[in-house]
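For consistency, the fold was encoded as tokens, as this record shows:
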Amino acid sequence: MRYRLDHVEGDESFDEAPRWLAERRHAVSRLARIFVLSLLVAVQVLALPSSAYGDQWSPSLTVPPNSDGVSFVDNYQWSALSYIAASTNSSSGAAPAVQCPTFTSSGPCALNLPGTTGTVTALLPICESATSTNCVASMALGASSGSMVPSTYVAMTDGATTPGDPELGIPAGSSQELWTNPLANLGGTTTYTTMVEAQFVLADGHVVSANLSAAIYPYNQISQSNIPPFVTVNPQGQVVVEGGTIECAFTTATTCGRLEDFPVGTQASLSIRVSNLVSGWFKGRLQNPSISETPFDATSNVISVSAGVVTVPTLSFVAALSQVQSDPSIGKLISDLGFPPPPTAAATYVLTDSPEATTALNDVRGAVNNTAAGQVTVWDFGTLPSWAPTSGANVSCLNDKAQVDGMVTTNSMAYQPGPPSVSGGYFSYSVAGMHYGANGSVVSGTYDLAIRNSVAQCLYGFTSAPISATVTVTEDSSGDQNVATTSVSDSNGWLHVGAYGFNFSNPTISVRLTQISTRHKRTTISCLKGRSTKRVTAVHPRCPSGYKKK
């Protein structure tokens, strides 16, 4: 089980306890914190009202005594911070670890030397010049793809910074960019922030892998007392980030960048210059993404993504201890998440792309009447999490370390943490969610697959001829086909497949690629003989005797 337990003394209500951030915060293992309450209320879905129109719905872990709770979240954006961590056990890379204020010439923080392991998490700054690398080049927004307007950079947020190491190819860590754009968000402001984080894993004096996550957040800056994000070493000897406030895109001691929602239909683009070690498969919360990757210099590429915002249903759930003991599905949830048995109470955040997410949603589905508690508008993407499957058939086709291979995006509440599985000639991708939204309407699902033609050709043994695709959506529980609108396009070396309007609970999207035959395609050539010209059209056209092809 990938969870650890913390004990909280007393029998007071539990509200917004610290988060365990190991997936982003430490490369050694992926953990999520279960908050234990020492020690009877009805099962409830937490549908929290916004403090103002447009303020984004925020999941909560406000759990009364004698209760268990779970909230589903995409990431830990409220605790974004640049920092350096090193393991004191170089043979395994496991805890105990230390925070490194800088790179040193000896000891665990000498990450450029053999026998050391560690991670560098760097929030990328704005590109200050035409030659700057590992930075954010531009961001644009609009009500449609044809009306996007470049955003104006304002400043970086206050926050910790870290030094870089040019010999290792490690950039200096910064904070988040603040922007303005003519497009007003639903909070009535024109202010946005970008959070672009690169994480570098080091072993034996060199970088062995690099990951990237990027997001655009609408915000409204308000005065508020907070504990800003800070780095610490927990009792288990792991470097973690604590602090921050879940409803804030960024925090200082006295301000909060209160998350707002995008207007429905918003289109956005983000261009990033980043290490060319960032590669492979990406995931995202986007609709109809367009991706480009071009070399920038010898060690970095420009990755540009343009896509629409998606609306993602979400859930916070609290059950009384009596319900945990009497409802088998809720009891299964507590067991699946590794909670301690009753009467000890606990709560946790579950990442929506974690292996446990779909199971947890199915466990609570009946108790919440198959209904979400809220919804948020999202625009983000990133490399796959550390626990995503990368083995199996054709793994070499799906994990090219020299390029971005493809991207899968969806608005489902939980989704498969990895590239689509390939079996029997089909890409298959599993998603899950509640059938109804918080307002009672049926949730409409979105799914997009963007894959390089060269990757599809590798998987299927295709030639360079054009590729076509068919898409089906089936419900796992019944096998019935789920009504969906599908689209397929092939341009600029990328195949894009989309499925929209399908319903939940646990649909599987299947995509079958086919090679468009060119065996019987007729072409026309021009043939010359002196001043005479003839045009010949055939499957394999040839010029008549005495004529030469023009």
